[in-house]
Design a protein that fits this description.
The chain is an alpha/beta fold. The chain has 12 helices and 14 strands. It is 38% helix and 14% strand. The structure holds pyridoxal-5'-phosphate (PLP). Residues 56-58, 82-83, 85-86, 128, 154, 156-157, 178, 180, 191 line the site of pyridoxal-5'-phosphate.
Length: 368
């Protein structure tokens, strides 16, 4: 039986050629031309001044939080409906992630709930552009301005999306991306921080490179980290970036096919709504199973798996898991979306027939 996976990378560009070049020239560690080229090309793509490569997206969140001065006793507003890394990075600094509910339609951070949860200890806000759908950045930036908060955009899932003409990840004090194997572009494991401030860039570059003085080798002026990306990873990343427009177009095509197949089925399912003024890159096309459906979300996923279709549940909210359990968090919408949401296979190698098969299977599960 053919298995349809949720995510498959498309490595059909110069990735292999560039990796071979790393091996042939022995430049396989974090020094080497691909790291610089990947950073410069990524910054250019995002219309940002600076891009700093890291070994994954999680540490790419940690570095700006340190550089922005986050410390023990501080609080950061984080959506409850996200991947664990967003909250963990805050905790690495000894600070507290304060969980904010999501909007019912876009599944992104609810600005009203965010503002309600601001205290005298709040230092920052981290909008997450969930599943490729940019957050309402006008509202986020407005809150940040009025309450003097930093904004760190978690764009780990959102390469190439835009909000009112601006690239996701380029609007806050800093933004970060992940290049894990299931992302829109990948280098296996990798991350990138982007920012427009030279001082912040210098501070973050030093932190990710063991705290070494930029003008004096082996001279350390602060406790830093080895969060560097290898030249091999950057070589793959550059090969991917050269074709990012095609990778995004492929996802938009898949999303269009899902909409077409499921448009007459909205009595039973709901789509994740694209934020007003935004263009989503559909990292994971996702649907919500409505209340009138009798079969459970998990049972639907089990049957689809039996038929050879891999799906994923929408993330568990942070505040319900043992690591961050908070009975007073009050994020009912996140709990609802999490309990009824399914990520469907979304990648370039899916055919029109695959999408029809996935949708037909989903429909027959629901109709019984
Ligand atoms: C929203 C979000 N933030 C952060 C990360 C962390 O990235 P990485 O897995 O590269 O460490 C991910 C990755 O999956 C993510 O989805």
């Amino acid at each position: 039986m053919k298995r349809i996976q949720v995510a498959v990378p498309n490595l059909s560009g110069n990735e292999k050629k560039y990796v071979d070049d790393c091996l042939d020239t022995t430049w396989i560690s974090s020094n080497g031309k691909y790291v610089k080229q990947f950073e410069e090309s990524f910054a250019q793509y995002l219309n940002a001044k600076k891009a700093i490569s890291c070994c994954n997206g999680t540490v790419a969140l940690h570095v700006p939080l340190i550089a922005l001065g986050l410390k023990s006793g501080d609080e950061v507003l984080v959506p409850s409906l996200t991947y664990i890394a967003t909250a963990n990075a805050v905790r690495y600094c000894g600070a507290t992630p304060v969980f904010v509910d999501c909007l019912r339609d876009t599944w992104n951070m609810d600005p009203v709930d965010a503002e309600r949860k601001i205290t005298k200890n709040t230092k920052g806000i981290m909008p997450v552009h969930l599943y490729g759908n940019p957050s309402d950045m006008d509202a986020v930036m407005d809150i940040a301005k009025r309450h003097n908060l930093f904004v760190l955009e978690d764009a780990a899932e959102c390469h190439g999306a835009s909000y009112k003409g601006k690239m996701a990840g380029s609007m806050g004090d800093a933004g970060i991306f992940s290049f894990f194997g299931n992302k829109i572009i990948t280098c296996g494991e990798g991350g990138m921080i982007v920012c427009n401030d030279e001082k912040l860039d210098a501070a973050m570059r030093q932190l990710k490179g063991q705290g070494q003085d930029p003008n004096r080798r082996y001279w350390f002026t602060e406790v830093g980290y080895n969060y560097r990306m290898t030249n091999v990873a950057a070589a793959i990343g550059l090969g991917q970036l050269e074709h990012i427009d095609e990778h995004i177009a492929e996802r938009r095509r898949v999303a269009d096919w899902y909409f077409e197949e499921l448009k007459d089925f909205t009595e039973y399912i709901e789509f994740q709504k694209v934020t007003e003024g935004a263009e989503s890159v559909w990292w994971m096309f996702s649907v919500l199973i409505k209340d009138n459906v009798k079969i459970s979300r998990d049972e639907i996923m089990r049957i689809m798996d039996e038929k050879g279709i891999e799906t994923r549940p929408v993330f568990y909210p942070m505040h319900v898991m043992p690591v961050y359990e908070d009975k007073n968090a009050q994020c009912p919408v996140s709990e609802y979306v999490s309990s009824r949401g399914i990520n469907l296979p979304t990648h370039a190698l899916l055919s029109r027939e695959d999408i029809k098969f996935i949708c037909d299977t989903l429909k027959s599960c629901i109709l019984g």
